Each structure stands twice: as structure tokens, then as C-alpha cells.
Amino acid sequence: MSTPQAMLQLKDLRIAFGGQAVVHGVNLSIQAGERVALVGESGSGKSVTALSVLRLLESAQLSGQVLWQGQDLLKQTPSEMQRIRGDEIAMIFQEPMTALNPLMTVGAQISEVLQLKKFLSRRDADARAVQLLAETGIDDPERRFGAYPHQLSGGQRQRAMMAMALASEPKLLLADEPTTALDASLRLQMLELLADLQQKTGMAILLITHDLTLVRHFAHRVAVMEKGHLVEQGTLQAVFEQPQHPYTKRLLSSRPTRAGLVDMPLLETPPILQAQQLQVRYPKAVPGFKAWFQKHHFTALNGADFSLSPGSTLGVMGESGSGKSSLAQAVLGLIPFSGELSFAGQTWQGSPARDKALRRQVQVVFQDPYGSLSPRMTVGEIVAEGLRLHHPHWTPEQTEQRVRAALAEVGLVGEGFADVLNRYPHAFSGGQRQRIALARALVVEPALLVLDEPTSALDVTVQKQILELLKTLQKKRGIAYLLITHDVDVLRAMAHQVMVLKSGQVVEQGLAEQVLSDPQHPYTRSLVQAFPETT
To answer: Which residues have CB under 8 Å from 494's CB, separation 6+?
Structure first.
């Protein structure tokens, strides 16, 4: 029995920019109705390979063949490619806020596709757009039709972008990191929705991702890329259970583990951070004359009790809107709160001068290392900023010595970092930038670090390196970590205790091993099941 002809075939595909090759002779095929995952770290060539299928890389030099149902897309005219884009091959991008037009309502953007590609009337296109929003799981689709992208949550924006991609009923969907910005349970919901739509329509899907957990739940076949080379491909079972290439083995072994985690401090140790009935409320606009006489509030965090000992890690998990960020901002003294919150007997006073000493004790590392580092400051200036505030009388030599020590502590030392102090953040990789952010926080010798999704923007291998570094620093310095994350694997590797938030309420908390291995609350179980413990 002959094998049916592949819907899409990449034959010896090579991609270069300015004469420098970035993809080297990729051979990959996708059958109708198949779900293929293209995995690898940042810079491996995944996204440019997908973009080259639709010839969206204007400055790229492409060679080889991209055969779509037997026709080479590299030889098609611009007008023919315009017809194929959307009609036959559609794409979902990583960040919906940048992919959607902020000046048009979500419904108008979907309707526009239907009018241009399916030649529907405005009325029919609008009705079909509402139907597509409903099919992709958006609640109250008639009202969401008139919403602008900024008025929707991250999950709703991603669903709206999916509705737009599916509007012209494509035969192949290219999904480039479609769930990276979403919470764990939302990620699985989106993939389940994609799988359901794929089965209904019979379209094929190429999923570009570095998240191996998603691949396990979604793909029929897996292709692995490293530095522009396709190093391995096969069925999901074959690649995950019997990987052949060393790079594939390294990716699969990069799942965080508890190895190296320091023991839980003795219970008799006085807590460094303690909260009782911690509450955060935000003003809420209410229409009508009632707002004139009575203030209304939205409660983001309600009655949270927790404590954190020196040298230990409290992991806080929950979906978007659960109250994680409000809790972190309250701990950092960045927003008003009620209830009790103390750091070794001290609390925030709401004054920069009075809070200065406490500010040195409590530092933060953010999710996006690139966004949290000033592009106009050198690494030396970034790391020294806290020292200039808290030690204004130090000499430049003393400051530089401490800065170099902090950078060395996070691994930015050696031959490749000879001029590290005078370089800017853009000259470093994502993992190196996160090390710079860590050095900036550590240089003032804090007692507590708030880690706000510190590894979610990083590749799996780099993520593991950062987590190992955090464990080493905790063991060496005795720092306490308040770890905000939606990644259960990170909690398994890092947390001594876990607190679960849902809609501003603490629904479960206890020792990490107990909560993550035997969750009692249904919500906790749903989060943990998104990250099965066995590989």
C-alpha cells in the first residue's frame, strides 16, 4: 500500500539572512489531519522555518522546496501567495496583543477576513464571526464581538486570534508558540480546543513550541531542531521514549527536579515573612448615580494567611486573576493592603524614606528579563543602581568590586564576559539577562526574593540552569523565596511549601510534597494534572 502524498513537504529548505545561513537543509512532511510539533530552543530555527512556508520573511534568502499539495510555494507569485495565506494555510502567532489590531474591535477583524477571503456580505460576515467566537469557547460572543483586544483576557485574545485564523477554513494551521503567554490550565484548554477543531475540520496543524509538556498532550509526530538543523523526527512515542540524538536527550532531561533543594528549615525558626488576613482591594467604577454616594471595590486578594522562614521557598500557584500578582505587589510594598504583613517585625510605612531599610531586605526578579532591564543602561550601571541608593558613601572601587562579585556569583564571569560591565542587555541571551536581573537583586544582600514567574520566558534547558542557580544561592546565603508561578514542575523542583490561590481566596496550602502529590481541592487537582509527574 503506497503512502499518500504529504500535504506539505519541506525539501532541503535553507534560510539565510545577509548571506548567513540560519536553517540548514530541513526535510519535513505533514499529512492531512496530522498534528506535528516542531520543538527546540530559542534560535533553533523553528519560527523562521514556519514563516518561510508562507514567505513572510521578506529579507530572507530561501532555497530548496516548500511543496504545498505538489506546488512549490517558493516559485509562486505574490498574488498567488496572498490567496494561499489564510485561504489554505493560516497562522496563529505567539503574542495576540501584538498580532491583533488595537484600533479595531475583535469582531470587526474576524469579519474583515470573512469579507475578503469568503466574499461574504457585512451582515453575514458579522454573524459568522460571532459563531466562530462561540466555537472557540469565548463566553457571551455577541458582547465580545464589539470588544477591543485590550478589553479581553489573554486567553480570550488567543481564542479570538484562533477564530480569525480559522475563519477561512484553512487546510493547514501553523501555530507558533500559541500558548506561551497563558496559564498552565489555559494552555491545555487551548490545545484541547485546537485538537477538537482539527478533528472537526480535518485540517493539519504544525505546532511550534519549546514546551515539551504541551507536545506530550498534543502531537502525533515530533521534529526536533537544533541550531538550524533538523536533528531528529518520529512518532511522539518513539522520540520521547527512545530519543536517538544527544540534543533530544538533553531537552527531555531538562525537566526541573528537586535534586539539590536545601532541607526545610526547622519549624522553630522565626518566620521572616508573616501575613494574617492579608487583603488587597481596588476601586471599581460603577455606572449610575449610586457611584456618587458609595465607593465600590473589587477584592483581588481576600484573607490570606501564610508565613515564610529564612532559607525556604513558598510557592504560590494559580491562574490569571487568582490574586498572585496582587499578593506579590503587597509583599513588595507597591500597593495598599489591609491585614497584617510583617518582615521580622517590620512592615511597610508607605514612605520612601521610612521604607528604605526594608526595601533593601526585599527584592524582586521579574518574569521578562528583557523588559525589566533598562536598554539604555550598561550591565554595570544596572547592577550598581541599588548600591548607589543603599550605600551612597561607597567609593566607585567598592561599588565595582561588589558588582563584579554579584555577577560572578550568578555565573557571568570568565572568558566570554571580560567586558560585561560595559555591555548592554541586548547583547545577552534570555538566560544571561535573567542572571543579570538576579545579580541586580542580590547585590544589596536581601533576605527575601520575590520571584515572579522567573523562568516562564526561558527555554527548558536555560530554565533548569536558572533553577539550579537559585537553589545554590539559597543554600549559600539562606535567602527566602516567594515564588510566583503557574508551572507545577517549577514548584516540584523549588518549593518547600505551596499555597494555591483561586479568585483571591487561598483554597489549599501545605508542604509541597503533600499538596502536589495528593491535592485535596478540585482546583488544585486540575492545575497539578496539567503537569503529570511521570515523563
So the answer is: 256, 261, 313, 315, 467, 470, 471, 481, 483
